Amino acid sequence: MVLWCPDWPVIAAGIVEGVPAHGPVAVLHAGRVLACSPAARADGVRRGLRKREAQGRCPRLVVVDHDAGRDTRAFEPVLAAVEQLAAGVEVVRPGVCAVAARGPARYFGSEEAAAELLVEHVAQACDVEAQVGIADGVFAATLAARAGRLIPPDRTTSFLAGLDVGALGRPALVDLLRRLGIRTLGDFAALPAGDVLARFGFDAALAHQLAAGRDAHPLAPRQPPPDLDVTQEFDEPVDRVDAAAFAARALAEQLHQRLAGHGLACTRLGIEARTVHGEELYRTWRHDGLLSAAGIADRVRWQLDGWLTTAGKRSVATSALVSLRLVPEGVVEHAGLQLGLWGEAGEERDRAHRALTRVQGLIGPEAVVLAELGGGRSAGGRVRLVPWGDERSSGESDQPCSGGGSGEPPWPGRLPPPAPATILPEPLPACVTTADGTPVGVTGRLAVTGEPALVTVGDGRPVEVWGWAGPWPVDERWWAPDEADRRVRFQLLLSDGQAFLMSLSGGRWVLEAVYD
């Protein structure tokens, strides 16, 4: 049993973006019409037309770009409505879903009654028009849904035989078959299967089985996501932190047990509360590990403390709470945590972690940040600040990137390891000269004009250079003159034991960072 929603990309655009789907609307993909509304078809718009031709046929046509994500999101309520009447729904594509017909037919008395109830329920629950088709196999049932037919058992082959080969949905194969004089699915199905495989290939052999009504592909029903949220409605409005925290602890235990029952653990927690005055408060807490029941309870208590009291000069809603809801926004499979070499983490680390998280609860998640390395070419550009507890990136290898293997973008021109220990907030002016005092420069072909021998930083005394490496050129954002950065960088080891990262740009040397 297949449920088909006609012109779904147009309907989804109307649901998500408010496009007037009852008027002339066309959804475009790659510059051609992918779907259009009945009003647009009445004016001559058809699938496959180019945008200019479609607008020429219907000047008042509303054009919308195709968005597969939008189609999928809008179809989710339809799937939920179907699952209320029939279990085991398979999503064929946005706008089309399939279920095994036997169960609903037995429960509701007949296939006709089940199909009628399904169409009526989707119309009432989602305000969406749909058609149902029943046949042997998803392919035939989809075509039956388009025709609004319920094919009796063992009559699928005769139903398919009179349909045009274009129903296969394989343009190249269909064009070839038509040039060979094969116009219907019945003509195609009459060909010997071995000859079809030898002449047209494996995909055509699969299409040959579909044309003959031998759709052996079993349904792959989706598993409805478990309802993991936990909610508590308070009999009396709660305006005290201790009373709210007591309820939050029990709710946290309930959430933790529900997640554990599904083999899951929480990494990102949403806390939602509703006040007497109808205010809806929501805050998301992130964590770079797995939240235990105590961790969930602590974050809920800290957040309630922030909502029910005044933190510094930040005034927050102080009306009493009437409901509290915990939403596990991020979950992962939980197979237990690997302990450290000496057992559990130390008490000092736990106390620091709890203290920083507490500060976040009082003054906001962006108030406590942690530095981590990311992609980039300059020493300072690789450092970014992330809120404490956020999921951190997997980190970037210290090996020179060749565009490869780990899935990270290449950074040509990046300095080799190790990274400098100290990055100066403001680069210091410097001078690099040869032994005879001639300033060292770099030609357009990246050739050094002289051997670096002396380095002077600011007003300091010259220091002898014992070793150097480079140059590493950088030419970034050349297309934006105001933001362009063109420079070469050097690593220099001095006689006093210091190691510098220096750069030359526009004939001027600067000290950027210092190595340990």
UniProtKB/TrEMBL annotation:
Source organism per UniProt: Planosporangium thailandense
Record bears the keyword NAD: no
Gene3D superfamilies in alphabetical order: 3.30.70.270, 3.40.1170.60
Function summary: Poorly processive, error-prone DNA polymerase involved in untargeted mutagenesis. Copies undamaged DNA at stalled replication forks, which arise in vivo from mismatched or misaligned primer ends. These misaligned primers can be extended by PolIV. Exhibits no 3'-5' exonuclease (proofreading) activity. May be involved in translesional synthesis, in conjunction with the beta clamp from PolIII.
Keywords, ordered alphabetically: DNA damage
Name of the featured protein: DNA polymerase Y family protein
Keyword set includes Transcription regulation: no
Chain intervals with Pro residues compositional bias: 409-419
Location of the region described as Disordered in the Swiss-Prot/TrEMBL record: 381-419
Family: Belongs to the DNA polymerase type-Y family.
Database matches in PROSITE patterns: UMUC
Boundaries of every UmuC domain copy: 24-149
Superkingdom of the source species: Bacteria
